[in-house]
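Data availability (excerpt). The following record was deposited with the supplementary files.
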Amino acid sequence: MKTKLSLIKLKPLCSALTICLLWLCSGLPVQAQAQKSPKVNDIFFEFVSKELSLTPAQAADIRPLIKQYLMERGKTSRNFRDPLEREQQILSLKMKYRARMAKVVGKQKATRFFTSEQSFRRKVKDVLRAREEQAKKPSSP
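Predicted structure:
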């Protein structure tokens, strides 16, 4: 019974994380995604702000940099089909944005941003896997 109630409580979070994963992994421009689902950006930025313990001023200052980074990362993922070239370009992009973000939040938090991004993506994938497994199970009457 507790498991069923827990799943019911997690349903809105699962939906939000699903949207976030689709947003982060899709090839659509960030602006088009924001128009379709304005809460996706907010969920990701809230997660990052919490993970990095950002002050409201730091969060406001770093938000445009994160948007730019995500947009460029999406373009890079689409433009480089070779996995090694793509990873090399993404690494260069991360280095470039770490330097920019460090001016706002310091080098340590700027570095941790990328760890937080990976963590967020991993959590979204876990939620999707759990939903997929739940959907495969026969529902009991």
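Summary of structural features: The chain has a mean pLDDT of 80.
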